[in-house]
Amino acid sequence: MKNDLVKKILSIVCSVILVICSLFLIFELVQLNVLPSKFLFMGVAVLFLIDTILILLLNFYSKKIVSKVILILITLVLSFGSGFGGYYLLKTNSMFSNITDVTGKSKNTVSVIVKESSDMKDLRDIDGKKVGTLRLMGLVGTETCLEDIKSKDISIEQMNYDSISSLMNAFYSGETEVIILNESYRSNVTDIEEYKNFNENTRVIYQTTFEVEDTNKVNAVSDITQHAFNVLITGSDSRVGLEENARSDVNMVVTINPTTNTILLTSIPRDYYVTTVCDAADGCANGSLDKITHTGVTGVNTTKKTIESLFGIEINYTVKVGFETVTQIVDALGGVDVYVEPGYAVTTNNFSVTEGVNHLNGKQALAYARERYSYMEGDRQRTKNQQQVVMGIIDKMTSGSVLVNYADLMDALGDTFQTNMSASEIQALIQYQMDKMPSWKVEQYMVDGTGDTLMCAALGQAAYVMVPDQTTVELAKRKITAVMDGESSDSITSLDDASSTQTTE
């Protein structure tokens, strides 16, 4: 009798665990909303049927100890599978929430900076000192920081400068001992050869953080599974997180046509010399000539509008990528494979690749994607390397190996991406993929140009740039238009091929 009672209790406990785990799985599956209705209904029905059969056998029909033990083991295994599956779906839901949770605000951090050798340790030490500031660039941040300083009863002598180069010259010459600098401009400073060690020989003694309205608005299509659309992928080199504006070191327009199952990747080199376009609220030097990478300093909206003007297209959605955290994604995937063409083997302090297929971990992949000085083609080759890393990530994410470190991958994605595409739109695309199982054709193109040294507005001095080859710009425009119109971009090989193509102004 006692043994029968124990077996009965175990059977009930196992049944309850099975029901809880199954309900958890179903709940997360419904919340995720990526399965087509027919698959969702079928999956829930099959799970319900299996659970019902197991519970009935376990509690009412199994009498012998051997069969009872076997059924308990099967029930526990199924419970574990349902619970683990529910956990995976929970991590996926969390990832979707993180990447689409756009607050409408951009964080700005403004630093009070002194030389590493300075005796000044905190904000009180700048009282009565000459403090260098930028006259027009990052004006809102500068004024916010100055108000913060004033509120602490600290008096300074403000010295205004028209450009980053003049501010740095005053700082290093001793004309001013302290500078106020928006952290989004830090990379612009290190872009200047004579100040490339700025991060190492300076020290932050105080910071002011504030938020501004994010002007980047979505241009959504009515049905993302039926209409072609453009997505701007921009890679930020921010050291403090995605919410902080920084240079856009990677810029790629992804044109997706779900009706023809075509994807076109159009890459723009970081040093591309373009006319900056922005809204008044962005605070950029509208109409000035500068590198495309510098547009990210005033926000994704500036980069988007500048590229829209360059190609004469409309960008529907944006995806901001924290380039530094790409390492986490690659490591979570177990590394990525890239193919190095003959003559392009490279060895640096950060990575080494040989001709042929190379397996790279996260740190190596990031270094490979950012390297340009080792190549004769410079930024052109770097852009090609970036495309290789992106394709390597896609290959791994669409393979079965993604399940090994799935939870880590979801965490990494949540910290790495930010998009103004809604969760429901992403879910609709996944549903479409699972329902139709289309075979996507991925096409690639990169605009080109010639190297030169020209004035850059963000720096206030001349720097290396790539002057656009207008033929490649026009070809990119027409290739994008072709894919949007249901054609292949590969059909556009010259301007003559595209003479009849309608372009968007």
Notes on the protein architecture:
It contains 13 helices and 19 strands. It is α+β, with helices and mostly antiparallel strands and 505 residues long. The protein has three domains: 2-100; 105-213, Periplasmic binding protein-like II (D-Maltodextrin-Binding Protein, domain 2, 3-Layer(aba) Sandwich); 229-334 and 369-491, LCP protein (Aminopeptidase, 3-Layer(aba) Sandwich). The strands form six sheets. It has a six-stranded mixed beta sheet with strand order 16-11-6-7-8-17, with helices on both faces. α8 crosses α9 and α9 (362-370) runs antiparallel to α10 (379-397). Mean pLDDT is 86; it is low at 499-505.
Average pLDDT figure: 86
What structural category do the secondary elements indicate? Answer: alpha+beta
Helix content: 40-55%
The CATH topology of the largest domain is Aminopeptidase
- Kindly report the spatial arrangement of strands forming the biggest sheet: 16-11-6-7-8-17
List the quaternary state of the chains. single chain
CATH class of the largest domain: Alpha Beta
Give the N-to-C terminal Cα separation: 85 Å
| CATH homologous superfamily annotation of the largest domain | LCP protein
- Enumerate the spans where pLDDT stays under 50 for 5 or more consecutive residues: 499-505
Q: What summary fits the major beta sheet?
A: 6 strands, mixed
Say how many strands there are: 19
